[in-house]
Write a structure and sequence with these properties.
The chain is α+β, with helices and mostly antiparallel strands and 701 residues long. The chain is built from 11 helices and 28 strands. The strands form 6 sheets. The protein has a 7-stranded mixed β-barrel with strand order 10-11-12-13-14-16-15. The protein has a 5-stranded mixed sheet with strand order 1-9-3-6-7, with no helix packed on it. It is globular. 36% of the residues are buried. The N terminus is likely disordered.
Length: 701
């Protein structure tokens, strides 16, 4: 009868059906479940809701999941990682590592269209928030019926207890939607984990591709990849693992899971790489600034490229794809040592060791015989094997390296430590120490000297001796730590003020500054660098070049990670509300820091006339003219002979030129007339030395 009635009165029927739909089908459909105790044993616990009778049966961007609400009792919300898992196994993170020592989620609801992000909420979280990841990623066309799970992990086990009281999910016609991404001036990196969660260790297999249409061109997700292959990937870092935006370490693999050396984004071929999230550094350039300055000072530093990352087709923001510190002819260029090198000259190198936490990539090592000058709690200095790895280094090699470092420390502790022949210089290259001092003090690195500190030693026949560096992990430097005076532009980083901290500064630096020749050379080097690499103008030009490159990408980054104006450990207050204000704050702090160092750098420079420091006077390679409009010459002085390798990079770290000369010539002419006007970085390598300088390409006449 209804059918016949509808035929006779079509308009009335349509209105009747719409009324029925609005009162039933279009009405949001909510499902509720109880909870239970949250494990405090480091085990994620899932709490299910059974969804049945849902209509329509599939969830997408027309009808799908709208809202998730939770009630959790827990005294330390920052310990919790809360995820929603769909019936097909895909998941999104609702909240992770937020709220500090605050407690509880009371009537906390998550919706993609909420006005306030969970990043800007405060515990006890109550009300409507946008989640860490978009709910819309789960509205992927899957069947809505089945088990939906709230997955909760207490990331700091054996401490606080908590429980899930209840939770609900609501489906309707205003569903969450995925993030829309169009294009970028940065290369695009895609990682596919094939549904696996990335662990801290070990690495899991994943697909990997890079879209890069070249400098100055736009990159779209649908473009053909410049590189595509396999990787093994893991979460990296120590304290940074608590952040929802993770950093990753990865190796380029073949299809069978074997390491293969691969050139990525123009960087020299190798297998070990880093994707750095720079989450707490809202300028996203502190690490890059440290790497660039160290390279400009004449040393190997990690090459890097800014990229935008997609993880399982979800946009994850701006990352730095960089080299991992490693022994290699294109990285830390020291002699290779094998398990059979246990005698004679081969036993003497090369080696890399570090001072760092034993979490993350930490491992075996040995204790220094000399405690830090500040050790009220019995603190000691622990040196860790980096190369060879602790799994590869032999007993003879361990004994040799420890004995050598012991000899250096004994010499530095001795009354005659400043003797140029028998003192500490017998075991170490002085310039690397005062340059490393400058890098840490200019940045006021709160972790400087005591964490993420690398030292390497070359084989004796190739120069031997300890060398500081490369620099690493400066995201908490330059006024980005609210503890241990990390935010003050005054004072010395080597005089670390937190005596109760487990990690302290080795005695080296206090002792070196008692050496009058060292402080004189330090003063000369500082004065020289302030005229070029460390001038206020040079620093600001570099910062501006990065912020210009990141203009569009940073907006997308902070759209999905809305942390501007929000405290992220360990940001000092106040918290700038915009990216431009973050950059302005950094520049202002740097200007104040440079002024303070100008007034307080110890020593008296004895160099007269040229303005160059001792190290510059020792140069044996000349480059001229500089600036140039095209051609320039590289001249080797009499005690330097080819073979020589010449590398030219732009300011983004892309290698533009690589020349190997083995002709016996002492002078070479190079042409960069085809390049745009601007600053380029020239690196020259011989068997015994590496030098780096800037080349200014001027506009042709």
């Amino acid at each position: 009868m209804l059918f016949i009635h509808c035929i006779k009165r079509r308009l009335h029927c349509i209105l009747l059906l719409l009324m029925l739909l609005s009162s039933s089908v279009l009405r949001p459909q909510t499902y509720t479940a109880g909870g239970g105790y949250i494990s405090d044993f480091g085990i994620a616990v899932s709490f299910p809701i059974v969804v049945s009778g849902i209509y329509p049966q599939h969830v997408d961007t027309i009808f799908g999941l709208e809202t998730v609400c939770i009630n959790i009792i827990h005294p330390y919300t920052a310990e919790l990682r809360i995820r929603l898992v769909a019936p097909d196994g895909s998941y999104i993170t609702l909240s992770e590592g937020l709220g500090g020592s605050g407690d509880n989620y009371y009537g906390t609801c998550f919706n993609d269209f909420a006005a306030t992000s969970i990043f800007k909420g405060n515990p006890p979280f109550a009300g409507l928030f946008r989640p860490v990841e978009r709910i819309g990623y789960l509205n992927n066309g899957q069947a809505g019926q089945g088990f939906w799970k709230l997955n909760i992990l207490d990331t700091s086990p054996w401490g606080n207890h908590g429980m899930l009281a209840s939770w609900t999910i609501t489906f309707g016609y205003n569903p969450g939607k995925p993030y829309k991404f169009s294009s970028s001036n940065l290369p695009l990196v895609f990682v596919n984990t094939y549904g696996q969660d990335i662990p801290d260790d070990p690495k899991i297999p994943a697909g990997f591709k890079i879209i890069d249409n070249g400098q100055g061109n736009t990159n779209h997700p649908t473009n053909q990849p410049a590189y595509e292959g396999h990787i093994g990937i893991e979460i990296r870092g120590s304290s940074s693992q608590m952040f929802p935006k993770k950093s990753y370490g990865f190796e380029t693999w073949d299809a069978a899971g074997n390491d293969i050396n691969t050139s990525l984004l123009g960087m020299p071929a190798e297998s070990d790489w880093i994707l750095n999230a720079n989450f707490s550094d809202k300028t996203m350039l502190r690490n890059a600034l440290a790497y660039q300055l160290w390279q400009d000072m004449g040393y190997y530093a990690t090459r890097y490229r800014y990229v935008e990352l997609f993880m399982n087709n979800r946009y994850k923001g701006v990352y730095i794809l960089s080299e991992k510190i490693k022994r290699d002819k294109n990285r830390v260029n020291i002699a290779k040592i094998t398990t059979s090198d246990n005698l004679g000259d081969k036993l003497t190198g090369g080696y890399i060791f570090k001072i760092d936490k034993q979490t993350g990539s930490g491992g075996e090592g040995w204790n220094s015989n000399f405690p830090p000058l500040v050790n009220p709690n019995g603190q000691f200095i622990y040196y860790q094997y980096e190369y060879p790895k602790s799994t590869d280094i032999t007993t003879a090699q361990k004994d040799y390296l420890k004995a050598y470092v012991d000899s250096f420390e004994v010499a530095l502790k001795s009354p005659g430590f400043a003797d140029p022949q028998a003192g500490w210089r017998k075991y170490a290259i002085e310039q690397t120490f005062f340059d490393y001092f400058i890098a840490n003090e200019f940045s006021k690195n709160v972790d400087g000297y005591r964490l993420s500190t690398f030292v390497h030693k070359e084989r004796n026949s190739l120069g031997g001796k300890l060398r500081m560096g490369p620099v690493w992990d400066y995201d908490l430097a330059w006024h980005n730590a609210n503890y241990c005076s990390g935010d003050a532009f005054t004072g010395w980083a080597y005089q670390f003020p937190c005596t109760g901290d487990y990690w302290q500064v080795p005695f080296w630096w206090q002792k070196l500054l008692q050496d009058p020749v060292f402080v004189s050379n330090l003063k000369c080097r500082w004065s020289f660098l302030r005229t070029n690499i460390l001038s206020n103008t040079s620093i600001n030009v570099y910062i501006d070049s990065i912020t210009t490159q990141l203009n569009g990408p940073q907006q997308r980054n902070f759209e999905i990670w809305p942390i501007l104006g929000v405290y992220v450990w360990p940001n000092p207050s106040p918290y700038p509300l915009t990216y431009a204000a973050e950059i302005a704050s950094l520049k202002a702090w740097i200007a104040n820091r440079l002024s303070w160092l100008d007034a307080n750098m110890p020593g008296t420079c004895q160099t007269v006339g040229s303005g160059q420091n001792m190290a510059a006077l020792e140069r044996r390679i000349n480059i001229y003219p500089n600036p140039t409009t095209g051609f320039f010459s590289v001249e080797l002085l009499p005690d330097i002979h080819s073979p020589i390798e010449i590398f030219l990079y732009n300011t983004q770290g892309v290698m533009l030129m690589h020349i190997e000369e083995d002709s016996g010539k002492s002078k070479f002419s190079l042409d960069i007339g085809h390049l745009h006007a601007g600053v380029y970085h020239l690196i020259l390598k011989t068997a015994l030395r590496m030098e780096s300088t800037r080349i200014l390409k001027a506009t042709g006449i």
